[in-house]
Design goal:
The protein is an alpha+beta fold. Helix content is about 35%, strand content about 20%. Strands 4-3-2-1-5-6-7 form a seven-stranded antiparallel beta sheet. α2 runs antiparallel to α3 and α4 runs antiparallel to α7. The longest helix is centred in the first third of the chain and has 16 residues. The two termini are about 20 Å apart. The N terminus is likely disordered.
């Protein structure tokens, strides 16, 4: 389950936090070795998707942030939605952007995380971005389910815009009445929507290292720089 990925108390990152702390924006994009491994393991279409991603991000470096949001949201939303049980043979796996594109599909957390890293690489400040756990009313099941989206904060104390793999429209959070946020995080911290500050905003409650899937994700992103690209279910 999506919410099972939180473990308290926090655990130490697996040494891969260096990727986020010291790497340049280009370190988030596939290099020649990663492309060759993807081509060999998953075929030329996988390498083509990764190249298209790299070109998209590079072309957005000098673009207005509104354009960055729209284009990155549409780019990833064009990929198929695939459940982790089908793609990975397990209940919950946070795919790296390279894995998502190489395998041509993923679920909600994969999309939210890929957009987060892509916008970071495109020059959007991390403090404006939060990967956000929500409870969502999903028409396909006619019930509330765990879901993940990316929230973009134009102003620190303002309402965020929501990037969702279920729709291409990027709407302010107050218009997304189908979503109820619970937790959010970025590389700088962890926030709880159930705990509020005096201004009514989500309260910071800890470090992102408390999410073990985040640690594992960063470790695999670091390994991809050495030419290791994970595959899905055999």
């Amino acid at each position: 389950m999506l919410l099972d990925t939180l473990r308290w108390p926090g655990v130490l990152a697996l040494g891969a936090g260096v990727l986020m702390a010291s790497g340049s924006w280009e370190s988030l994009l596939p290099d020649a070795r990663t492309l060759e491994v993807a081509r060999t393991r998953f075929g030329p279409e996988a390498a083509s998707r990764l190249l298209a991603w790299e070109r998209e991000v590079r072309s957005l470096r000098q673009a207005p942030e509104e354009e960055k949001l729209g284009r990155i949201n549409r780019f990833f939303n064009a990929l198929p939605n695939v459940d982790d049980a089908v793609q990975w043979g397990r209940r919950d796996h946070w795919a790296t952007p390279v894995e998502l594109l190489a395998l041509n599909g993923g679920d909600c957390e994969d999309f939210a995380l890929a957009k987060y890293f892509s916008l970071k690489a495109a020059g959007v400040p991390v403090e404006k971005l939060r990967v956000t756990y929500v409870r969502a009313w999903l028409r396909r099941s006619a019930r509330m389910e765990a879901h993940m989206v990316l929230a973009y904060y134009p102003e620190a104390d303002g309402d965020p815009l929501i990037l969702d793999n279920l729709m291409d429209d990027i709407l302010p959070a107050p218009r997304r009445t189908d979503l109820t946020p619970t937790m959010s995080f970025n590389a700088e911290g962890l926030w709880s929507a159930r705990q509020r500050t005096q201004t009514g905003r989500s309260a910071r409650v800890g470090e992102v290292s408390g999410i073990h899937h985040w640690n594992d994700l960063l470790a695999r992103m670091g390994q991809e720089r050495d030419g290791a690209v994970s595959g899905g279910r055999p």
